[in-house]
Amino acid sequence: MTNMEKYKKTFMEAFDIKDENEVEALEYMGIEAWDSVGHMTLVALLEDAFDIMMDTDDIIDLSSYAKGIEILKNNYNVEF
């Protein structure tokens, strides 16, 4: 499984999304499931999936699917 597949799967699992085409447009508070509790669930799943520990600033900055890719690439050396 590629890192992109793993990343997408993590979002789908965190927010119980069945259609992978819906994932790329996700933004914080853009769907009911992505509230503060959903956000922390997502962070925990991302940390497990990529074996990282996210900094508080990165957790706060994680505001969309696209922003998450940017954070993981730039701050945690995850290759997509």
Secondary structure elements and their pairing?
Blueprint: H1 3-15, H2 36-50, H3 56-61, H4 65-76
Helix pairs in contact: 1-2
Mean pLDDT: 97
The CATH class designation is Mainly Alpha
Given the C-alpha coordinates, what overall shape results?
A: globular
CATH fold assignment: Non-ribosomal Peptide Synthetase Peptidyl Carrier Protein, Chain A
CATH superfamily: ACP-like
Number of helices: 4
Characterization of the model:
The protein is mainly α and 80 residues long. The protein has one domain: Orthogonal Bundle (Non-ribosomal Peptide Synthetase Peptidyl Carrier Protein, Chain A), CATH 1.10.1200. Helices cover 57% and strands 0% of the residues. It is built from 4 helices and no strands. Helix 1 runs antiparallel to helix 2. The chain is globular, with a radius of gyration of 11 Å. The mean pLDDT is 97.
